Amino acid sequence: MMNPTLIREVMMMREAVIEVCSGDTAFTIVPPEIVSCNMDLVTKRIEEAGFICKLKSRFCHVFEGDYELTLYPSGKLLLRAEDIDEVQRIASLHLDVWLAD
User: Fold this and answer.
1) Is residue 5 included in any domain, yes or no?
2) How far is Cα of residue 3 from the mean position of the Cα atoms in its chain?
3) Residue 16's closest CA among 96, 79, 72?
4) Cα dist. 98→23, 34, 39, 76, 101 in Å?
5) Distance (Å, rounded) from C-alpha 28 to C-alpha 88?
6) What are 8-67's pLDDT values in tens digits?
7) Is residue 4 part of a domain?
8) What is the model's pTM?
9) Computed from CA positions of residues 29, 33, 38, 41, in that sequence, does the dihedral angle turn out positive or negative?
């Protein structure tokens, strides 16, 4: 169960912002200084982590797996999850692996 006092705030992780949205069950991970990302490359990396891309458009790519993910061309990632530890784990993957140069 999530800590209600923690999820009401914007969290920071290595200069990225993790914003709470959708009734405390979804989070947006906003990377620092990224204006755009290579959607195909990042999609491949997310798929290698066990997620399945169910929708590809120029506006977003939607993934299913342990969690629902939505990747945007800006590098933002919408994550639907209720466990803050998992949110931080996925945020680390996104920032350190999926968006890596």
Assistant:
1) no
2) 20
3) 96
4) 26, 13, 10, 11, 9
5) 11
6) 445 566 677 888 886 678 999 998 877 789 999 999 999 999 999 999 999 999 999 999
7) no
8) 0.84
9) negative
Alpha-carbon distances of 30 from 1, 12, 91, rounded to whole Å: 23, 10, 9
Structural domain of residue 41, as residue ranges? 10-68+77-98
Q: Minimal CA–CA distance to 99: which of 55, 36, 52, 53?
A: 36
Overall domain count for the chain: 1
Question: Other CB atoms closer than 10 Å to residue 15's CB: what's the count?
Answer: 10
Query: Is 38 in a helix, a strand, or coil?
Result: coil
Between CA 101 and CA 87 the distance in angstroms is 22
The answer to whether residue 47 sits within a structural domain is yes
Are the beta carbons of 24 and 2 closer than 8 angstroms? yes
